[in-house]
Amino acid sequence: MTSEKKRKISIEQARKILDFNWTGSYTQPGPRLYPHQWSWDSGLVAFGYARYDTSRAVRELRHLFSAQWKNGLLPQIVFNPEFGNYFPGPGFWHAKESPNAPEHHKTSGVVQPPVHATAVLHTYRHAGDEKEGRRFLEEAYPHLRSWHDYLYRERDPEDEGLVYIRHPWESGMDNSPLWDTVMLAIHLKAEEIPRYHRADTHTVSAADRPTSSAYDRFAWLVRFFAEREYDEAKIREDCPFLVQDVLFNALLYRSDQDLAEIARILGEDPSPMEERGEKTRRAMNEKLWDEEHAIYLDYDLVSERKIQAYVTPNFVPLYAGVPDEEQARRMVESLKGYFDLENEKVIPIPCYDVHGFGFSPVQYWRGPVWININWFLMRGLERYGHDEEARRLRESIANLVEDSGFHEYFDPFDGSGHGSVFFSWTAALYLDTVMDEEG
Is there a catalytic annotation at residue 139? Predict the structure, then answer.
């Protein structure tokens, strides 16, 4: 089979996967493991839909915004009552303990990375109907303003320009080595561990998923939030997990820029978003930049120190435009230290250094290849003019998916697929990658 025919078939398969996972109002990330709506998954699948069906991208984001909390929080999960056998479900979250929880949706009580303004602007730019596109901007704009206001008001109490996350799930990288030192500091007695029954290990291999000890702490944090009625001031008084995450803040900065652009299109004042975003960019360079290793590092607010874990998502500031030209050049060289950008046939970049402590080629976020992170890096390389490296990464993303299928993540050594099958953001970002190349 020629490479051209293989690509054509894969494009058709990607669209069929998104059709299969479409519920009529949102897209399931994976048909068995993830039946509900996830926040940043919806933002990322909108990039793929915008390439051929902007109306579905609009409905995807509209459904997520309909579950926004009264204080602006955009929840990680919007639950579908048709799928009850999921942990942690609404009964475990007790989100209704908060007076800010939405009345007509059941949701989780945490958030995910803020890609939404970027997704909304991207959808608008690909809309075939200018009036419909502008109407969607007008509809989405107050939701986005409220979302960003919540993050800076409730998650940046010292007004640094950096927001914190309070659960590993909020990073989108649930089981990353980033969280090892923080989670180790949470000492639980047997009677303190909430009772729960995992559903994920009955769907995919337990070797791919977080350990039971990690899940004990995930569940304990959820109960911790519910006991404080999701009041951010009460939570941060003694929460053991408060981290200024590089990926989260980089995507927030990019979304600040895109929200400012939306404001300009609508005739609104963009300066508040521009000023807030610039404050975030400066704070990332002053507090999170690691000069020795040419990478940005997360900061643990509880122990008051940087987290010395060198994960690939911490290069995502390239995508957002956070570093200056010299910093970006050094970051690309640092990437080359454990990923051969010169190799035409290389598998895309793993999410963690293959020589790092605790690396696993198959365990969730501890070393596998994730298409979304590689997509961010590809766009970042393009942004800073590293066109040849970006081209190679683009081809490696396309080749991996075309050879191995639309999996949640992949083994960085042999390219085999792991996690959920028919994974939506893999399909969507593959479409955006190859359709961008082919026009």
Answer: no
